[in-house]
Amino acid sequence: MTEGPVTKDAVTAPDTTDQLVVLDNVNKHFGALHVLQDINLTIKRGEVVVVIGPSGSGKSTLCRTINRLETIDSGSITIDGKPLPAEGRELARLRSDVGMVFQSFNLFSHKTVLENVVLGQVKVRRTEKKAALERARTLLDRVGVANQADKYPAQLSGGQQQRVAIARALAMGPKVMLFDEPTSALDPEMINEVLEVMQQLARDGMTMVVVTHEMGFARSAANRVVFMADGRIVEEAEPEQFFSNPRSDRAKDFLSKIL
Ligand code: ADP
Ligand code: MG
């Protein structure tokens, strides 16, 4: 993975913290709606955290605050010991430290698959074109779409497009990957090919936050399940414990509807 240059920040905020993402008392409103309420969440390096909960509970907003697609009203968020930058180049750099994969694939439709994976590396990471191309081909191979490199996104299946989106995020050398319902828009037969790529990523030690309704994935890949309802973290537990013995009524009710 790409390593940034050693800056003076590295001296004041050494890269030794075990806590990669820390949300401390985060609050967020949309008008009168208190969408994130006193969120405290720490994600350790290499940890896979699955976030589940009913629709409208704030899961997407939580993800979006972590790479600052949404601002917060109070509290703090740090990534690898550093507070989220507000704007400019620092923000662009943060966005590449925090890879994000959405429900909709969000590929550049007028660029080829290969160009999609090369672009950010050259523009944001300032990687040399040749190295960026090489890295893109390696990653496309890793997610199993190397033979689609010269096609345009619309020529690929949804599952293939989503795997390209994962490769594109990985190309930036992220410290953490956020997945917001990455398989929800896929036809059923394509869900597993995307989950398998995510499983492999988890096994390789990537730090991941995954919003999903795929409970099989949660059981097998998550170190921890975070259950949200009404803008709050209601329950946090290891998957085995959460699924076999949820403590809160909200979680029991939710699980009884989806399992
Ligand atoms: P989830 O991902 O758990 O379904 P969201 O984070 O998308 O929940 O939304 C949480 C709540 O915030 C919902 O009530 C939603 O309607 C509201 N919301 C989300 N985004 C916005 C926005 N940009 N403006 C106003 N309300 C929003
Ligand atoms: Mg959502």
Automatic annotation (TrEMBL):
<dbReference type="InterPro" id="IPR030679">
    <property type="entry name" value="ABC_ATPase_HisP-typ"/>
</dbReference>
<dbReference type="Pfam" id="PF00005">
    <property type="entry name" value="ABC_tran"/>
</dbReference>
<protein>
    <submittedName>
        <fullName>Amino acid ABC transporter ATP-binding protein</fullName>
    </submittedName>
</protein>
<keyword id="KW-0067">ATP-binding</keyword>
<keyword id="KW-1003">Cell membrane</keyword>
<keyword id="KW-0813">Transport</keyword>
<keyword id="KW-0547">Nucleotide-binding</keyword>
<dbReference type="InterPro" id="IPR003439">
    <property type="entry name" value="ABC_transporter-like_ATP-bd"/>
</dbReference>
<dbReference type="GO" id="GO:0005524">
    <property type="term" value="F:ATP binding"/>
</dbReference>
<dbReference type="InterPro" id="IPR050086">
    <property type="entry name" value="MetN_ABC_transporter-like"/>
</dbReference>
<feature type="domain" description="ABC transporter">
    <location>
        <begin position="21"/>
        <end position="255"/>
    </location>
</feature>
<comment type="similarity">
    <text>Belongs to the ABC transporter superfamily.</text>
</comment>
<keyword id="KW-0472">Membrane</keyword>
<dbReference type="InterPro" id="IPR003593">
    <property type="entry name" value="AAA+_ATPase"/>
</dbReference>
<dbReference type="InterPro" id="IPR027417">
    <property type="entry name" value="P-loop_NTPase"/>
</dbReference>
<keyword id="KW-0029">Amino-acid transport</keyword>
<dbReference type="InterPro" id="IPR017871">
    <property type="entry name" value="ABC_transporter-like_CS"/>
</dbReference>
